[in-house]
Specification:
Layout (H helix, E strand, L loop, with lengths): L1 E3 L3 H13 L4 E3 L6 E5 L3 H11 L8 E3 L3 H5 L2 E2 L2 H10 L4 E7 L7 H4 L4 E5 L3 H10 L3 E2 L14 H8 L5 E4 L10 E6 L2 E6 L5 H8 L27 E3 L10 E4 L13 E4 L6 H17 L4 E4 L8 H12 L8
Parallel strand pairs: 1-9, 2-9, 4-7, 6-10, 12-15, 13-14, 13-15
Antiparallel strand pairs: 2-3, 3-8, 4-8, 5-6, 6-7, 10-11
Bound molecules: threonylcarbamoyladenylate and magnesium ion (MG).
Length: about 325
């Protein structure tokens, strides 16, 4: 069932009823849609893994409504607390030390002794507040595929496997949250996302530690092939071939585009936030219309551009047989 989030009271009521019954509910957040369940309900969380075909070693983000709820599940060091104050609610996830008394099932956290927490804004925040418990929610897509930024994407991936979808319109940011972890008083980046690192550096006054290329995988979602459409993806395209579709921005003509399959200009004004908001929906649309190959122009690695480069690099990576 798809319920419109603008009919607020009804949406909250059906969502809370479903969550309390241990069902899965797809919810809109400002980053991407999440496939949510009561984070404290083992059986419900197990269904997320089944439906999403997600490997059990890959832990989920627990979404909380406020700091009071966060404090029930995690222990915050002073620097994490500063980040929380500056960027929650918002597109940031913090990997924190799990409170041993927190009673979150191991299935939610993968038993790592840490817990990834995010306080989202908007509809999902109010839903969690009313529900009174955190929601475990990965992005609402089959593992390895492009995340959903619209309710219809969720319906297409999961069909009747998801009991309820709350339609909050297109996700505002369009890429997943930035995942950070504080270690030895240093902020470490685990996944670039909707919160720009420049912002984090401005607030903390120190440089964020970027992951080493080819280093150990700390967030399992960092596995190389991920966020992949069915079509092949070619990066840093300076020209486009006749059999390719083109993704570009800023209205700049690209050699070959007059003869290519289709051109998607994600932001004629050259605004990277607009590119982010439209990227996933465009990759999915290209699949729906049967595009076999997509060329993407170079995207600067500033602001949200860092996350965009990360996602398209994974979309372009050799498709490995690892089921994620
Ligand atoms: O914007 C988002 O973050 C969306 C919305 C729905 O909140 N969620 C999302 O969830 O992208 P997911 O499950 O697709 O990605 C969460 C990432 C995974 O790569 C997972 O490995 C990592 O967070 N993660 C979760 N718990 C972790 C932990 N304790 N330590 C390290 N990484 C963790
Ligand atoms: Mg995901």
């Amino acid at each position: 069932m798809i319920v419109d989030a603008t009919s607020c009271e009804k949406a909250f009521a059906v969502a809370i009823e479903a969550l309390a019954a241990g069902s899965l509910v797809a919810i809109p957040t400002e980053t991407v849609y999440g496939l949510a369940a009561d984070a404290t309900n083992e059986a419900a969380v197990r269904r997320i893994f089944e439906v999403k075909r997600r490997p059990s070693f890959n832990p989920l983000i627990c979404h909380c409504s406020d700091m009071e709820m966060v404090a029930r599940y995690a222990i915050l060091d002073p620097l994490s607390r500063r980040l929380a104050q500056a960027f929650w609610p918002g597109p940031m996830t913090l990997v924190l030390e799990a409170d041993p008394a927190s009673l979150l099932p191991e299935r939610t956290t993968a038993g790592l002794g840490t817990v990834a927490i995010r306080v989202p804004s908007g509809f999902s925040n109010e839903l969690i507040r009313r529900f009174g418990k955190p929601l475990a929610a990965p992005s609402a897509n089959i593992s390895g595929r492009v995340s959903a930024t619209m309710a219809e994407h969720v319906a297409r991936d999961f069909g009747s496997d998801v009991d309820l979808i709350i339609d909050g319109g297109p996700a505002m940011i369009g890429v997943e949250s930035t995942i950070l972890r504080v270690l030895d008083d240093e902020v470490e980046l685990l996944r670039p996302g909707g919160l720009a690192l420049e912002e984090v550096e401005r607030v903390t006054g120190r440089q964020v530690k970027r992951p080493r290329e080819g280093g150990t995988i700390v967030a399992p979602g960092m596995l190389t092939s991920h966020y992949a459409p069915q079509a092949a993806v070619r990066l840093n395209a300076k020209r486009v071939e006749t059999f390719e579709a083109l993704i570009k921005f800023g209205g700049v003509p690209v050699p070959g585009e007059d003869n290519c399959v289709h051109t998607y200009d994600l932001s004629p004004d050259g605004d990277l936030d607009e590119v982010a908001a439209r990227l996933y929906a465009t990759l999915k649309l290209a699949d729906v219309v049967g595009v076999i190959s997509i060329a993407i122009v170079p995207i600067p690695k500033e602001g949200i551009g860092l996350a965009l480069n990360d996602r398209i690099a994974r979309a372009a990576a050799p498709r490995c047989p690892i089921p994620d």
